[in-house]
C-alpha cells in the first residue's frame, strides 16, 4: 500500500511537471528604466505611464519601437503622432478603440473605404456641431 501511495505521488508530480512545461511563459513587465535610449526616444509619450501599462501593451509598444527605425521619415512622423494620441487615451478609451478596430477588420475589404468615408463624415459633422467624437 505504501508503495502504491509513493508511486501515485510520483505520477502526480510527473503530470504536474508536464502541465507546467506546457504553460506559456509568464510575461514580465519591463520597467521604463530598462528600455534602451532609442526605445525611450520613440516611446517618450509613455514615459510617465509606461510602468502602469499591462505587459502585453508594453510588448506591443516595444514591437512598434523595433519597427520604427525602418520606416521612412514620413511614416515615422505619422507613427509618432499616433503614439502621442494613443498615450493620451484612458485605458477605457484604448479598449474601445481596440474593439472598434476589431469590428472594422471584420468588414469585407471592398466595403472598408465606404465605412471610412462614413466615419469621416460623422467626425466632420460632430466637429461642426462642437460635439467631441468618441475615441
Helices, strands, pairings?
Layout: H1 2-22, H2 37-42, H3 55-67, H4 73-87, H5 91-106, H6 109-129
Task: Walk me through this protein's architecture.
- The protein is extended.
- The chain contains six helices and no strands.
- 68% of the residues lie in helices and 0% in strands.
- The mean pLDDT is 83.
- With 135 residues, it is mostly helical.
Percent range for helical residues?
Answer: 55-70%
Which ranges are low-confidence, i.e. pLDDT below 50, for 5 or more consecutive residues? none
Main sheet: strands, sense, barrel: none
- State the order of secondary-structure elements, H for helix, E for strand: HHHHHH
Distance between the termini: 66 Å
Which radius of gyration do the C-alpha atoms yield?
23 Å
Mean pLDDT: 83
* Count, helices: 6
Number of β-strand runs: 0
Which structural class should the secondary elements be placed in? mainly alpha
* Beta content: under 5%
Question: Which shape, going by the Cα principal axes?
Answer: extended
Describe what is shown at a glance.
The protein is an all-alpha fold. It has helices at residues 2-22, 37-42, 55-67, 73-87, 91-106, 109-129. The chain is extended.
